[in-house]
């Protein structure tokens, strides 16, 4: 079942997914809960849902899941309350010695107590805020009435004194007229006091004036400090107002306007003598309420502290129980309703662990009957499971983002660990920038334990999870930067003196003219003399362009070799002879030959034009090469390679569909075709592989069209994919030129002014440009291009990626999941 089925490659960690098996569990009802709990601790069994036709409410443990959901709601409520109060739940590894029913009762009691405390606290706080506002009204309005009374008394005294000293003929008549006025016709004024938000005060006054047609008298006083509104609980700047009116109609209008503007009204006695007594009473009640509120807050904080001490344990227990019952709902009841029957996928190596867990569960639950574990035979495609660690997981995520590997298909991650950061570094080659990336990554790794337990932002979380991938990218960038001899675009003589010197003493500008080779070749990387010379750009362009082609052809050949490994592993000889062989011949007849020409030109120092050779290899294959000939017999070799490339196209296209048709006819007649003799013994029917058709229907036209598309895609893709690798040259050149421009036009230009202010500004701009453009944008650009080269140019040669991940029932995955 789980044994490897052979192949050209030895067993390799991560190269093939773990051998999987479909297992069946028959568990007694009394030990089902404990069995699921122990299997969750093992975390190596992915259950299949055997109750797909049932709704969630029809399943066996629907009531228990509802109960767990209610407990989760209460725990979320506690968490919100703790966050508002500034409490943090304590991490605890201690075991919870409480069962689910007791926890449900405990959480219900705590919720009821906390809700009651909150309700009482809100009522007391609202009453306190109302009394604060009432006290302000008493003080501010009292000041107004006191001022008005003083003014009226003063006017009365003035009037009496003027009456005594200034007697006239009209005065007695006027006084008699006033005294004769009917008291029933005197107008009685009423007034309303309260507070209105300061931002609404002008509109409030204007609306009242218009509604009463000006028959009111309004006074407003600004409250210096913001006031907590009793209704909303927010601090608002308010004004104390007093509105004098005449008549009930005006009063009703004013009351409605107060409600519309959210103005809080408070009673104010006309007896000025009792105002001081009211203020004293309100102050006393405020003190009492403050003391009561403080006691309530202390009680609430003590309750939240108690909850916080056990919150993590309770939350873990509730989530664990919910996951257990959710898993048990995937099992089906047998006909006797005394056992649960479940099926699931597990790695072969986990068989012993699962069996031990079943035995422990049966023993601990005092079950008279143990659980039954048996392996089922199936042709269903198993899930894909790779055992990764914190170093390999980011590279596996890069591959899985394209598609999850089919069961036991060759995993590109093994090679991506090296090739991805290397191709990134080819485009990002500068050991100064590489050091910056390295220091940033080492900072993340040094704080690994701290950050792993924290909630990080989206971008920070992405960087932290890929810290080891960035570490590899930084190390390879330092290496390629040493090869390019660039440190923020500045060359250094790290490995010895330059091999070039001036031709004679008249050589003035050694970077542009008159250089000859006088010493052995520079030992590692590009000679520093090339930088700044007139030949720098043509030389580096030629070097990086040819290097890109060599790297691209090498990686594409690796992809085709991996397709051979897949074909040998799955014992598919058709793919070996009619896919791998013609693809290798076609690719290397053209671009493999171009790679050999590049190496030969580098080794011999020939001046041959490789563009001319490759173009006329197709246009005029029989013409003499002349000065472009690199070795004897080159013309004959080119003719043979061109003929092989032409033969490889029908080799890929024609035989395979007809052989598949013949195999299908032989199976229908009851005969076995020798090429597929081994595959009939396989346990699993490996998915929707186009090369093996286990069903009875065979559409020859569909198979032929698919093979035609595959052939055209490979032939045209060989050209386009090779050209696509030239992005390595283009981005490397762009990175180098940008770095050089920033250095020359910012740093050196600022240095040349001999002004400390200009120098500091230039350095700051240089740092910002380097970080923003070269270390952020260029890093992202090179990352995306390296990603494209792996997904499209490399993986399409062998990687189907139509599998599905192994998601086991495991309690250790709780930290990675959101509620």
From TrEMBL:
<feature type="transmembrane region" description="Helical">
    <location>
        <begin position="547"/>
        <end position="565"/>
    </location>
</feature>
<keyword id="KW-0175">Coiled coil</keyword>
<feature type="coiled-coil region">
    <location>
        <begin position="93"/>
        <end position="127"/>
    </location>
</feature>
<dbReference type="InterPro" id="IPR026028">
    <property type="entry name" value="V-type_ATPase_116kDa_su_euka"/>
</dbReference>
<keyword id="KW-0406">Ion transport</keyword>
<comment type="similarity">
    <text>Belongs to the V-ATPase 116 kDa subunit family.</text>
</comment>
<keyword id="KW-0813">Transport</keyword>
<dbReference type="GO" id="GO:0007035">
    <property type="term" value="P:vacuolar acidification"/>
</dbReference>
<dbReference type="Pfam" id="PF01496">
    <property type="entry name" value="V_ATPase_I"/>
</dbReference>
<keyword id="KW-0472">Membrane</keyword>
<feature type="transmembrane region" description="Helical">
    <location>
        <begin position="422"/>
        <end position="445"/>
    </location>
</feature>
<dbReference type="GO" id="GO:0046961">
    <property type="term" value="F:proton-transporting ATPase activity, rotational mechanism"/>
</dbReference>
<feature type="transmembrane region" description="Helical">
    <location>
        <begin position="756"/>
        <end position="777"/>
    </location>
</feature>
<feature type="transmembrane region" description="Helical">
    <location>
        <begin position="636"/>
        <end position="654"/>
    </location>
</feature>
<dbReference type="InterPro" id="IPR002490">
    <property type="entry name" value="V-ATPase_116kDa_su"/>
</dbReference>
<protein>
    <recommendedName>
        <fullName>V-type proton ATPase subunit a</fullName>
    </recommendedName>
</protein>
<keyword id="KW-1133">Transmembrane helix</keyword>
<keyword id="KW-0375">Hydrogen ion transport</keyword>
<dbReference type="GO" id="GO:0051117">
    <property type="term" value="F:ATPase binding"/>
</dbReference>
<keyword id="KW-0812">Transmembrane</keyword>
<feature type="transmembrane region" description="Helical">
    <location>
        <begin position="466"/>
        <end position="484"/>
    </location>
</feature>
<dbReference type="GO" id="GO:0016471">
    <property type="term" value="C:vacuolar proton-transporting V-type ATPase complex"/>
</dbReference>
<feature type="transmembrane region" description="Helical">
    <location>
        <begin position="577"/>
        <end position="600"/>
    </location>
</feature>
<dbReference type="GO" id="GO:0033179">
    <property type="term" value="C:proton-transporting V-type ATPase, V0 domain"/>
</dbReference>
<comment type="function">
    <text>Essential component of the vacuolar proton pump (V-ATPase), a multimeric enzyme that catalyzes the translocation of protons across the membranes. Required for assembly and activity of the V-ATPase.</text>
</comment>
């Amino acid at each position: 079942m789980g044994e490897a089925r052979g192949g050209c490659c030895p067993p390799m960690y991560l190269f093939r997914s773990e051998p999987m098996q479909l297992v069946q569990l028959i568990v007694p009802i009394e030990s089902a809960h404990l069995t699921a709990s122990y299997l969750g601790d093992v975390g190596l069994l992915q259950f299949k849902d055997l109750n797909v036709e049932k709704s969630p409410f029809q399943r066996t443990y629907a009531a228990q899941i509802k109960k767990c959901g209610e407990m989760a709601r209460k725990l979320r409520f506690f968490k919100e309350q703790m966050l508002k109060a500034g409490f943090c739940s304590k991490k605890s590894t201690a075991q919870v010695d409480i069962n689910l029913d007791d926890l449900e009762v405990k959480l219900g009691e705590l919720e009821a107590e906390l809700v009651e405390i909150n309700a009482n606290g809100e009522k007391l706080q609202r009453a306190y805020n109302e009394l604060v506002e009432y006290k302000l009204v008493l003080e501010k309005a009292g000041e107004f009435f006191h001022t008005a009374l003083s003014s009226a008394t003063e006017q009365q005294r003035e009037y009496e004194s003027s009456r005594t000293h200034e007697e006239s003929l009209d005065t007695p008549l006027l006084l008699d007229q006033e005294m004769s006025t009917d008291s029933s016709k005197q107008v009685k004024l009423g007034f309303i006091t309260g507070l209105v938000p300061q931002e609404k005060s002008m509109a409030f006054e204007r609306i009242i004036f218009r509604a009463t047609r000006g028959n009111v008298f309004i006074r407003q006083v600004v409250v210096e400090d913001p006031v907590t509104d009793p209704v909303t609980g927010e601090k608002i700047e308010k004004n104390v107002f007093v509105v004098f009116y005449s008549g009930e109609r005006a009063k009703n209008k004013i009351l409605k306007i107060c409600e519309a503007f959210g103005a809080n009204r408070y009673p104010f006695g006309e007896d000025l003598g009792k105002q001081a007594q009211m203020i004293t009473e309100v102050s006393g009640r405020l003190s009492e309420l403050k003391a009561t509120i403080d006691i309530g807050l202390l009680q609430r904080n003590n309750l939240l502290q108690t909850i916080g001490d056990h919150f993590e344990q309770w939350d873990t227990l509730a989530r664990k129980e919910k996951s257990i019952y959710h898993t048990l709902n995937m099992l089906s009841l047998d006909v006797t309703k005394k056992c649960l029957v479940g099926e699931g996928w597990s790695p072969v190596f986990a068989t012993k662990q699962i069996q031990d867990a079943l035995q422990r569960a049966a023993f601990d639950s005092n079950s008279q009957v143990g659980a039954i574990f048996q392996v089922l035979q199936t042709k269903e495609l198993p899930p894909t499971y790779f055992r990764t660690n914190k170093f390999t997981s980011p590279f596996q995520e890069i591959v899985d983002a394209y598609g999850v590997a089919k069961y036991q298909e060759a995993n590109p991650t093994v090679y991506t660990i090296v090739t991805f950061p290397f191709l990134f570094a080819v485009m990002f080659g500068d050991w100064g920038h590489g050091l910056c990336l390295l220091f940033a990554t080492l900072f993340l790794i040094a704080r690994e334990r701290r950050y792993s337990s924290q909630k990080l932002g989206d971008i920070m979380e992405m960087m932290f999870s890929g810290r080891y991938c960035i570490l590899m990218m930084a190390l390879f960038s330092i290496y390629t930067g040493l090869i390019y001899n660039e440190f923020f675009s500045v060359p250094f003589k790290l490995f010895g003196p330059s091999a070039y010197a001036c031709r004679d003493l008249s050589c003035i500008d050694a970077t542009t003219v008159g250089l000859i080779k006088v010493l052995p070749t520079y030992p590692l990387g590009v000679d520093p003399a090339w930088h700044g010379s007139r030949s720098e750009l043509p030389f580096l362009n030629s070097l990086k362009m040819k290097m890109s082609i060599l790297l691209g052809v090498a990686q594409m050949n690796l992809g085709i070799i991996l397709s051979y490994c897949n074909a040998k592993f799955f014992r598919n000889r058709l793919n070996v002879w009619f896919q791998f062989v013609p693809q290798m011949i076609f690719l290397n007849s053209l671009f493999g030959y171009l790679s050999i020409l590049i190496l030969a030109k580098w080794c011999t120092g020939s001046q041959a034009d490789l563009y001319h050779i490759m173009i006329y290899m197709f246009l005029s294959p029989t013409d003499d090469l002349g000065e472009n000939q690199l070795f004897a017999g080159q013309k004959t070799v080119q003719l043979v390679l061109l003929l092989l490339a032409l033969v490889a196209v029908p080799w890929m296209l024609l035989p395979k569909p007809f052989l598949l048709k013949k195999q299908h006819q032989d199976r229908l007649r009851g005969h076995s075709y020798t090429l597929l003799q081994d595959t009939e013994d396989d346990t699993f029917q490996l998915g929707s592989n186009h090369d093996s058709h286990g069903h009875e229907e065979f559409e020859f036209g569909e198979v032929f069209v698919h093979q035609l598309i595959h052939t055209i895609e490979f032939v045209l893709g060989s050209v386009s994919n090779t050209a696509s690798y030239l992005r390595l040259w283009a981005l490397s050149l762009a990175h180098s030129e940008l770095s050089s421009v920033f250095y020359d036009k910012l740093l050196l230009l600022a240095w040349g002014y001999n002004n400390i202010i200009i120098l500091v500004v230039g350095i700051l701009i240089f740092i910002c440009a380097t970080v923003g453009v070269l270390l952020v944008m260029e890093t992202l650009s090179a990352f995306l291009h390296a990603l494209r080269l792996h997904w499209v140019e490399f993986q399409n040669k062998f990687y189907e990626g139509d599998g599905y991940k192994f998601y086991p029932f495991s309690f250790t995955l709780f930290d990675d999941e959101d509620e």
